[in-house]
Amino acid sequence: MIIEARKLCKKYPNFELRDVDISLPEGYVLGLIGPNGAGKTTTIKLLMDIIRPDAGEIEIFGMHWNEENEEFIKQRIGYVGEEQPFYDDMSVKWTSNFVKQFYPNWDEEFYSDLINRFEIDEAKRVGDLSKGNRVRFALALALAHRPHLLILDEPTSGLDPIIRHEILKILAETISDGRRSILFSTHITEDLDKIADYIVLLNDGQVLLSDEKDTIASQTKKVYMRKDEFERLPLDLFIAHNTISNECVAVTTSFDEFRQVYENITGNEPRAFGMTLDEVMLAYAKGEV
Amino acid sequence: MYIHLSQQDVRPLYQQIVDQVKVLIMDGTLSPGQDLPSIRQLAQQLLTSVITVRRAYDELEREGYIYTRPGLGTFVSNIADAKLEEMRQKQASELLWAAIQQCRILGLEDEEIETITQSLLDRLKEDRHDNRG
To answer: What's the start-to-end Cα distance of chain A, in Å?
Structure first.
């Protein structure tokens, strides 16, 4: 396991993270989703030992955070946050030279290759980079020391779909050797609809959903039926529903079971559609459909 | 290998991959013995989850459409013509079943469904006849 976190708790005056579990094996992508203020960044800070939990255990690469392991773990993590703490007046080149010092594992060839692909001018002032290039530069710096765990906290907010697609391609490349993992926290769930293997949905400091994305997708569906049909079904099959005159739309989280029951009652197969993670999140967090 | 993935499709992503690869094999686009991208390669190409692709490949292998040689890769099976025919029948059966279900939801009786199907097939025959003439 690259990340194994159990029952993480952290209490703040106005917010509490409770019993958060995160597991991420080697070679996979975990998408951390949830509304603003759900606790995603707090969770990431805990995983990176930036803050300490009030309770719970964290193991990164099978090791606990302590003085002995700290350096080893840090060398193998790459991080891109929502904001990039660069000295805007310095050049790209200066910045990479600065960061390079901290990483004996820095792969100059790999880094140069990325910078060229991104068409980033190394002589340019960091503050003059376009938003998209600023993030891609941060990504290049995070990947240059070939980390085994890449942690991304809302890196793509405010970026256009083209740049986001480019970044997604780099991420897909990063995990293609099966030895690296990515923890991707974002509220742009479109990107996770594609690439995520696992999804953890946080809301109000708690885990509402944690599963393989495929399993979520195959069991969480939007279903349409008549109101009288809906009223004959067990309510616990659904986490959300809405009615207009004699029509009903609902979200079921146990599609196989629902389908069986619906067929038994009506003799027909249900009208069902797949949902995006956005829609899943809305249903779980707000009970809305 | 081009696979189209849709979030709105009722079928999960891995099923969409399975169904499309089956079609590519059955209509001859992928030939017997042809090598397929590895699970991680296809996942990267489609920008999709590795678990999803793995699940699709596992099912395709279970159903005999593809096979894996450790260290060498994944390949399209040499499917005997009879087996291919059986698979085509099964696929067609599933498609028609789904369509029939939809018609029944609309409230059509079995006889009406049969009549409509027959008239569609007749129209198809006429079109072919016209094109030849």
So the answer is: 36
Q: Quick check: A30 contacting B, CB < 8 Å?
A: no
| Cα of A248 to nearest chain B Cα, Å | 15
C-alpha span between A95 and B19 (Å, rounded): 49
The pTM assigned to this predicted structure is: 0.87
Closest CA to A17 of A25, A9, A27, A26: A9
Task: Provide DSSP, B76-92.
Answer: E----HHHHHHHHHHHH
Q: Do B44 and A221 touch (CB under 8 A)?
A: no
CA A264, A265, A271, A276 dihedral sign is negative
Contact between A211 and A238 under an 8 Å Cβ cutoff? The reply is no
- In angstroms, the separation between the Cα of residue A220 and the nearest Cα of chain B is 10
Q: Tell me how far apart the alpha carbons of residues A136 and A124 are, in angstroms, rounded to a whole number.
A: 14
For residue B129, give both structure tokens: 């006849």
CA distances to A41, A44, A214 from A184, rounded to whole Å, are 11, 10, 17
For residue range B43-86, list pLDDT tens digits in order: 999 999 999 999 999 999 998 899 999 989 999 998 776 677 78
Residue A127 CA to residue A94 CA, distance in Å, equals 13
pLDDT in tens, A50-87: 999 999 999 999 999 999 999 999 999 999 998 888 99
